[in-house]
Request: fold
Amino acid sequence: MTTFTPPPVLEKKNDPPVPPPPLSGSEVAESAAKRLSRPWATAAALIIAVLWTIPTFGLLVSSFRPEKLTKTTGWWTFFSNPTVTLDNYRAVLTTEGSSGLGKYVINSFIIVIPSVVIPLVLATLAAYAFAWVKFPGRNVLFIAVFALQIVPIQVTLLPLLKLYVKGDLVGFPAIWISHSIFALPLAIFLLHNFMREIPAELIEAARVDGAGHVKILTAVLLPLLKPAIAAFGIFQFLWVWNDLLVALVFAGGGSDVAPITKGLADLSGTRDSAWHLLSAGALVAIIVPVVVFLSLQRYFVRGLLAGGLKG
Amino acid sequence: MTTLEKLTSMAGALLLFGAVMGLILYIAGRFGERRAGKPVAFLFLLPTALLVAVGLVYPALRTIYQSFFDAGGTSFVGLDNFATIFTSSDELTVLRNTVLWVVVTPFIATAVGLLYAILVDGARMEAFAKALIFLPMAISFVGASIIWKFIYAYRPDQANVKQIGVLNQIVVWLGGTPVNWLVGSPLNTLLLIVILIWIQAGFAMTILSAAIKAIPGDIVEAARLDGVTTLGMFRFVTLPSIRPAVVVVLTTIGIATLKVFDIVRTVTGGSFNTSVVAYEFYSQTFSSSNQGLGSALAVLLFVLVIPIVAYNIRQMRATEAR
Reply:
């Protein structure tokens, strides 16, 4: 009882960086192997990180180089001949006619705001109904909505386009409605998962206090749902901002309602060798989602995990 | 339209939407009692049900119907469109490419994501290291395509002509002749696949990294005490523990890959034998005005996605049941 040696497991857990002094042979070998493999692991991680960063970095550098240099030399020569200009951005944003990307950026904002708000509100209501309102056929309906995620957008485009034309619905409204429709199954599914995690006692307590469904949803659940709503909002924002297919089909040929992705795709098609414009244009298109993404990354990752792992 | 007009129409649309939602909430609020389930559910689900019925269910059925008709959509041709997909040499190339995309992309993107997640797990600046790989996810497929088109850029091999694409420059530095990468099939398809892998690896890494962190510490500790090597640890502890997450990642990327369209359109426009089903659908329907064949391709896409999703649902069920 006088000498007390703590069990090795505990010691390891409490104090991982300092190995216990008396090491057995195999443990010595293991920690040696670990020390050896660490540099390799770091090197491999570095290689991947560089491979993943260089493409965007090269474009970033190019976008600030003068036209002539961009067309005749590689961007890596920038480091031996660092000439910087904003001409590319000026050209790509202000050029008159359809090639100026400025108005496409505005279109993208006009498209993206209702396309995020509408499905979020609708999905919140629907998810609440599926999660906390008892009604006959609830499970069957929920599975049906879930299964609709299978439908590829491609399948819906042509009939939907014909419906819009018949209903004289063109331009922005057609795009807003389409994006909202396509977002609903996943949005309902994700929000439903979050809502089910809220303890039933909380809702029961509100009910006892005499709150109806609307009161429970707006006063009790909504504040708790903020992270989930943020997560899906970012999801949908990135999706709509980065979409090309829906824009191509429903924005028609005109540059009046087309988003930045279409402007950029057109630029890429018609000015294939104008790398000074393409690189600046691409960065104009990239900057908004990247800023949104980086500033709200935490929520976004949480949303990914809720959708990907919970099931 | 001026910017002001656009903003006005957006504000108008949002106001209209807000008014409808307000009305729904107001009516639903009148049912205060506990037994108000049915009317409230009806009101809450009505807008969604309408949109989904008109925008997903009807179009899907309509497209399936349309796939049995000819190019103009007027005369019934039975399974001819599907026969075309599986016999015409152009369409067979499209199928071959699609198979290549779906077989290669999910596995490599997942492998890279997993490797990176393991390598940076617990490292210093882990969050920053992860952001580097994760960032391409925020970039549109069109933007990513332009980024990579630049890497693949080719200048004819003449005196005084310098390469501006990194890949060809590396070839030149190594003493080779520059290659017009995007012209030769099937190499060009693989180079397009690289773009999607670049985008999706971050997604794989995020999910798998979370799964790795969720492995109970005592399992790892027990294995370590048993003297399991690093590789053994991966093989017998890490991999089995994160299997469900790996399945989710593989299937999610697989489905996204089936629908890939923007990359092919932006980089090659489907020429040089690089088309895939999702792009071919678009070009047949909207450029070649062959509605029948376009619809059949969309249906094929649908059919290809079903088993992947079904498998995914079964996996989820199995995970939940444990």
About this structure: Chain A has a mean pLDDT of 82.
